[in-house]
Q: What sequence folds into this?
């Protein structure tokens, strides 16, 4: 894993260096300058300002629609989709397609970022290595994450932020077991980037600091404003994507139309061309007026949305940084005009705004905070940066659960949240683990009888029901003991209905266990009553937190077992054997004809043949090649179908008896 992580880091770092060099090369070919500065654009004739983006868009359109459709758009959602649905598998051709198309598009003036392509390139490299080594899906996903980390680390000279970006956004899970390889790839890629491009921050900014504690109030407001800009950006991006998708035009022509619109906008607002780092540096240094920065917010949102919506190739990370810089600069300039003695200059607010808009758009505040810190090497601004970024994230997640990345997948019907480990419980209902043992008492039970029942029983909590079995409330042993100390009321006059807690949270048999686990997180009790329905509230039984946790652990075990078996299964050709002990083998074989229509428990395979079925590949699975079908774990009630293959383990002679058994002999 360490060796592969180093290799991915090297290749991912080289990919990040290559795209920067290629962008400069295409800028020289298209515009006659290595750097597309505003001063140089003033010397470019109008027909070139319009024609060059159209030409670049035509080239990209051909690559996207005739070579690799994955090169379209901003790249990160495609990586997340590959991890969620395809076990991290990305076509190797994506590396070259994304590298070339994004370089051409940005070099021709497309209003997109280079970070998204670098992430996709690195991820595709990691995936290609995983596929080459034929590792299991869990390791392939780790290699993809290594590639993504190497890309972002090399792009921004930010190794810590690169690793956390990969974990927080690409994998979406801070509990990832293989974190070390991700860090190694991130560090190696940063070393490669520093060797070729130099060791300096992505943005050169003066030192800023918090002028007054009162300034935290404007920074909090900036968080809300940044969240609003992030939401507007996301909404505009996908609105224009829908607009172009509905157009009855050839894909290449759509991309060229987008280039025409970008070129026309660039005639009047040249700041929108390309990544826009020069304009961002000017805002950080306080060289732009607040009116200019306000106008650039809307111009950049429109330009980036047109670029990506029409089929261009590039990322949304740098545009988010651009929007944050302008949002913070505009707001900071107004604050400084109102309270100059209690506020920093607009450049400080631009710096904070960069992180806040990125956090709001990606829903990844930790990555946003660290990436701004590493890009600037300025710790003094960290407190307002944290406040604005967290508020921006909280605001955007309240309005819309999906980030700018996950929304693209949700629009395709892919809900990433449904695939997280915590939601493995969604496939199971309360009905599967409900306990019907009697821990109930009638509401008319007197206190002495109640105590006798509770002290001799094995439960500390009892549900109270009426004579019809309708749930009334809950009594704990501690509550009953407290009433014994009250000498003013005879115990015989105290009934269960007087002691019970009535505001109970109930669940129903068809509720999923993910919901139940969330309910346990909000209450003190370790069990919940299960009722027939909310109308009758007839008590069926109870569900314990321990049983839910046991079910979760069982699902995790099954998932890990399936992932661990994949490397064996994917490399096991039909009817080939693998020796695992001196006397045992693993073999895949087609089921005997008389198995069809019968279940594993009916056939009594374990006792009759002394072999264990560890995986079943159904003929109805996606691939016609048996070795390419992932298979499913067997259950006792699985009914075999014609053409099913099974992976079995056992002693050699027993396997042969299983494969060649004649049921009539």
A:
């Amino acid at each position: 894993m360490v060796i592969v992580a180093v290799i991915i880091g090297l290749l991912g770092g080289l990919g990040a260096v290559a795209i920067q060099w290629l962008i400069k090369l295409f800028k020289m070919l298209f515009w006659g300058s290595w750097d597309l500065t505003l001063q140089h654009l003033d010397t470019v004739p109008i027909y070139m300002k319009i024609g060059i983006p159209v030409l670049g868009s035509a080239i990209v359109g051909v690559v996207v629609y005739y070579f690799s459709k994955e090169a379209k758009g901003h790249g990160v959602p495609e990586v997340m989709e590959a991890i969620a649905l395809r076990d991290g598998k990305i076509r190797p051709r994506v590396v070259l397609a994304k590298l070339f198309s994004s370089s051409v598009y940005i070099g021709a003036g497309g209003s997109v970022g280079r970070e998204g392509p670098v992430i996709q390139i690195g991820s595709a490299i990691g995936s290609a290595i995983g596929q080459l080594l034929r590792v299991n899906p869990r390791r392939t996903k780790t290699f993809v994450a290594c590639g993504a980390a190497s890309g972002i680390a090399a792009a921004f000279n930010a190794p810590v932020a690169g690793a956390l970006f990969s974990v927080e956004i690409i994998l979406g899970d801070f509990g990832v077991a293989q974190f070390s390889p991700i860090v190694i790839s991130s560090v190696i890629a940063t070393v490669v980037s520093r060797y070729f491009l130099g060791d300096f921050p992505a943005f050169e900014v003066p030192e800023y600091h918090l002028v007054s504690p009162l300034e935290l109030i404007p920074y909090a407001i900036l968080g809300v404003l940044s969240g609003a800009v992030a939401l507007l950006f996301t909404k505009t991006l996908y609105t224009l994507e829908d607009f172009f998708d509905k157009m009855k035009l050839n894909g290449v022509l759509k991309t060229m139309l987008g280039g025409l619109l970008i070129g026309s906008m660039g005639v009047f607002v040249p700041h929108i061309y390309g990544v826009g780092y020069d304009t961002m540096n000017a805002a950080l240094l306080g060289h732009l007026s607040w009116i200019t920065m306000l106008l650039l917010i809307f111009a950049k949102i429109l330009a980036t949305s047109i670029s990506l919506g029409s089929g261009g190739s590039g990322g949304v990370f740098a545009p988010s940084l651009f929007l944050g810089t302008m949002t913070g600069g505009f707001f900071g300039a107004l604050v400084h005009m109102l309270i100059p003695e209690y506020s920093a200059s607009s450049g400080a607010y631009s710096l904070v705004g960069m992180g806040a808009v990125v956090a709001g758009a990606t829903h990844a505040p930790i990555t946003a905070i660290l990436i701004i810190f590493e890009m600037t090497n300025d710790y003094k601004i960290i407190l307002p940066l944290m406040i604005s970024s967290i508020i921006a994230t909280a605001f955007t997640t309240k309005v819309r659960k999906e980030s700018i990345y996950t929304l693209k997948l949700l629009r395709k019907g892919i809900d990433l949240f449904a695939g997280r480990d915590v939601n493995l419980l969604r496939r199971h209902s309360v009905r599967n683990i409900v306990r019907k043992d009697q821990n109930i008492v009638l509401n008319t039970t007197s206190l002495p009888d109640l105590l006798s029942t509770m002290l001799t029983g094995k439960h500390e909590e009892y549900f109270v029901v009426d004579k019809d079995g309708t749930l009334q409330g809950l009594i704990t042993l501690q509550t009953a003991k407290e009433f014994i100390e009250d000498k003013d009321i005879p115990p015989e006059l105290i009934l269960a209905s007087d002691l019970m807690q009535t505001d109970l949270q109930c669940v129903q048999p068809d509720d999923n266990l993910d919901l139940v686990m969330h309910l346990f997180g909000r209450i003190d009790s370790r069990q919940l009553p299960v009722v027939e329905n909310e109308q009758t509230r007839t008590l069926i039984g109870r569900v314990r937190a321990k049983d839910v946790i046991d079910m979760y652990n069982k699902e995790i075990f099954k998932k890990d077992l399936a992932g661990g078996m994949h490397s064996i299964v994917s490399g096991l050709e039909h009817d080939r054997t693998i020796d695992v002990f001196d006397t045992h083998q693993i073999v895949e074989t087609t089921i005997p004809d008389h198995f069809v229509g019968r279940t594993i428990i009916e056939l009594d395979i374990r006792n009759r043949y002394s072999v264990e079925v560890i995986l079943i590949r159904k003929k109805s699975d996606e691939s016609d090649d048996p070795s390419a079908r992932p298979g499913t774990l067997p259950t006792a009630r699985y009914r075999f179908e014609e053409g099913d293959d099974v992976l079995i383990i056992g002693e050699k002679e027993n396997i042969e008896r299983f494969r060649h058994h004649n049921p009539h002999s």
About this structure: Residues 430-548 form a domain with the CBS-domain fold (CATH 3.10.580.10). The first strand starts at residue 440 and ends at 442. Strands lie at 440-442, 461-465, 471-476, 527-531, 539-544, 577-579, 584-590, 611-617, 645-651.
